[in-house]
Write a structure and sequence with these properties.
Shape of chain B: extended
Largest sheet of chain B: 5 strands, antiparallel
Low-confidence stretches of chain B: 282-292, 370-386
Order of helices and strands of chain B: HEEHHEEEHHEHEEHEEHHEEH
Oligomer: heterodimer
Strand content of chain B: 15-25%
Strand content of chain A: 15-25%
Radius of gyration of chain B: 32 Å
Largest interface: A-B, 41 and 37 residues
Radius of gyration of chain A: 13 Å
Number of helices of chain A: 5
Mean pLDDT of chain A: 91
């Protein structure tokens, strides 16, 4: 079965890079470019995993999207990997507090990304 | 040339010279004569100008044509000249502007900014840190009224100097870090508690709304946004009438946060509206009796602009609103590009990704992506995104 992955990232180049990386695996890939769209798409398509950028323009940043997903009983099974250039302990704590399942700091290794995604989607919800 | 043109050109600050296509001067206004010597009925005396005009007359250059020349002085100024077609007939016009003056003022301003940054920023910081200690020290002993006045004046001066230092700092690009996550409710509460004594001293009431709502976060510099908000609220308080009411509200609208400090029963003239954003009260006139508005709102505006927002004054029928707009979330960057480090990481991992993919595909006897563009039946092709 091909797993649904939702990339929520505002920078087109990073988004493209993630897509190119995940295309080496067996995934159905979807994209959103801001927090509100990401949340709406998550509600509509119920992805198995979300790659969620922290800093995005608009009303919802990555932490807020993650928090809403994890607080929603119908969505909380979605695995969330936060992507961010901010790798300080306080940022990781905020990600954890929002309910993120993993945290990848930019610049991230594409190999690590695909390994992480594959291992997380194969875990039971 | 008719009298209407002559009268019009004599009013213009730029130099204007009307020439025939062979370079003979037909008219020069007062400003032009001050910049370059010229005689009616003769060619231009400046050789550069003469050659350029004659080249234009022979259609050897495309108009408008811009070039630089200098005044005929011991210490010459630079003149920016433009050759254009005359508004009527087949003649040419030469427009002259002294750019040395404008460069002098801009370099003087740059030098002043550099001087404040290099020579004054640190002493101002030191003074600001020492004043409270000096104050505490003086309170330990017998305090004279003179010392108390001196300390109060020094404190006031140091506050003004620190604002000047901040203003200079925010004019430098990159002064503001743009990646701290700021929860606006918390920041507003902190700043309100700082400025509240100023309002209380004049019996001004500040009501708030929207602070309990679930607001989006803002990304930027916490320290600078705190200063911007503080200056903005202080300006609003200074503008309010004694015993007045300031209704402060914050709402998320579209992709922006809108902060509004509404001063009831206040009127702001167009002059005040313009001058509020000009640092040092330039244009207020030397003989003004009221205190200058200071650099508060100018500083606030500069900081907010660097965060992608704006500060403005709006007026309603019976109230004046000091409005601050800040982009919600991270500032949208049009030029956001893949970082060099990220590209390097990708390049480094690419070979391994390919090898890994080929191994996997070999097990299912399918080709690797990037190796062949076709999709073999039986393999799961990635679905294109929306």
């Amino acid at each position: 079965m091909s797993h649904r992955i939702l990339i929520t990232e505002d920078q087109p180049d990073i988004c493209k890079l993630i897509r190119m990386t995940l295309e080496f695996g067996d995934f159905e890939i979807h994209e959103a470019h801001d927090g509100e769209t990401g949340l709406a798409m998550a509600r509509a398509m119920k992805p198995h995993l979300m790659l969620l950028d922290v800093m995005m323009p608009g009303l919802l940043d990555g932490y807020q999207v993650c928090q809403r997903i994890k607080q929603d009983p119908t969505l909380k099974h979605i695995k969330v990997i936060m992507l961010t250039a901010r790798g300080q302990a306080s940022d990781l704590d905020m990600g954890q507090a929002a309910g993120a399942d993993a945290y990848l700091v930019k610049p991230f290794s594409p190999l690590e990304l695909i390994d992480r995604v594959e291992s997380m989607v194969s875990q039971p919800a | 040339m008719n009298d209407a043109f002559r009268m019009l050109f004599d009013q213009v600050k730029s130099g204007i010279i009307w020439v025939q296509r062979n370079g003979i001067v037909r008219y020069a206004n007062k400003a032009a004569v001050q910049m370059t010597p010229c005689l009616l009925g003769s060619v231009l005396m400046d050789p550069v100008a003469d050659r350029t005009v004659k080249a234009a007359g022979q259609d050897m250059i495309k108009l408008p044509f811009t070039f630089e020349m200098t005044t005929q002085e011991a210490h010459p100024d630079t003149i920016r000249a433009v050759v254009i077609n005359a508004p009527v007939g087949n003649d040419l016009m030469l427009l002259l502007n002294n750019v040395s003056e404008e460069r002098w003022y801009s370099s003087a301003l740059e030098n002043l900014i550099g001087y404040i940054e290099a020579e004054m920023a640190h002493p101002i910081e030191v003074l600001m840190n020492k004043l409270p200690r000096l104050n505490a020290f003086s309170q330990g002993g017998r305090q004279s009224p003179e010392l108390e006045t001196l300390l109060s004046e020094a404190d006031e001066l140091s506050t003004k100097l620190s604002k000047l230092r901040d203003l200079v700092s925010v004019f430098g690009q990159g002064a503001i870090q743009r990646d701290e996550r700021i929860v606006m409710q918390n920041l507003i509460k902190e700043v309100l508690s700082e400025v509240l004594p100023q309002a209380q001293a004049r019996n001004i009431t500040i009501s708030t709304s929207g602070l309990e709502a679930d607001l989006p976060a803002v990304y930027g510099s916490h320290a600078w946004l705190s200063k911007a908000l503080s200056e903005y609220l202080e300006h609003s308080i200074r503008s309010a009438q004694d015993d007045g009411l300031i209704e402060f509200s914050i709402v998320a609208m579209g992709t922006r946060l809108l902060l509004r400090a509404r001063n009831q029963g206040l009127f702001v003239s167009n002059h005040e509206r313009r001058s509020a954003f000009v640092p040092f009260g330039v244009g207020d006139g030397l003989e003004q009796v009221e205190a200058r508005p200071g650099i508060g709102l100018a500083l606030s505006q500069r900081i907010i602009e660097q965060h992608g927002g704006n500060v403005r004054i709006e007026d309603d029928f019976d109230a004046v609103d000091f409005v601050m707009e800040i982009p919600a979330g991270a500032p949208a960057t049009q030029d956001a590009q893949l970082s060099v480090e990220q590209a390097q990481r990708y390049a480094k991992d690419m070979a391994q990704l390919m090898a890994r993919s080929m191994t996997k595909r070999a097990q299912t006897s399918g080709p690797a992506p990037g190796v062949t563009p076709s999709v073999t039946p039986g393999t799961n092709a990635p679905t294109k995104a929306r």
